[in-house]
Amino acid sequence: MLCTSKAGKAIEIAPQAHHWKVLPGADFGDSFRIRLKPALASQEIGELAASMMKNKAPWIDALLNLRNLLVRPFGLKRAKLGIGSPAAAEAGKNEGGLPGFPVLAQDQHSLLMGLDDQHLDFRVCIEKSRDDAGPDHEQWLTVTTLVRTRRLFGKAYLATIMPFHRRIVGNMLERMSR
């Protein structure tokens, strides 16, 4: 899919067919992508994902802390934007005592993270791709989020966080690209 955007600006695109296969029955999916500058285009997918998670705006951490406080009574797992191991997530511990998103699969061009909870399951696909049809064979980083709700509370939670989710993902991509 040919996509044009100003350098450093994240754009929303439709998730591709292969994304929906990573979480069958998903109720929601979105994708954001950004054109990579040459310095970032040479990095491996794990480095790009870690950089995106690490270089987030302080307001994102503040929102996550508020989220963790508000959902505690409802039994949702605490969240931390970061990359964690499946074992650390199961133990409920990682950097700062919070689980990051466990890596479920990784290859040279993509990283799949996710977590299953009693209210909803989610997957985050981070993919690096080349647009051979575009000028200069541009490279792109795409972040696709998929969510499958399990209960009414999961649907309500998803509806509540969605406006924040869109701003957070776009902001994280743009900050990483600066």
Automatic annotation (TrEMBL):
Q: Which InterPro entries match?
A: DUF2867
The source's superkingdom equals: Bacteria
Q: What is this protein called?
A: DUF2867 domain-containing protein
Q: Which organism is it from?
A: Herbaspirillum lusitanum
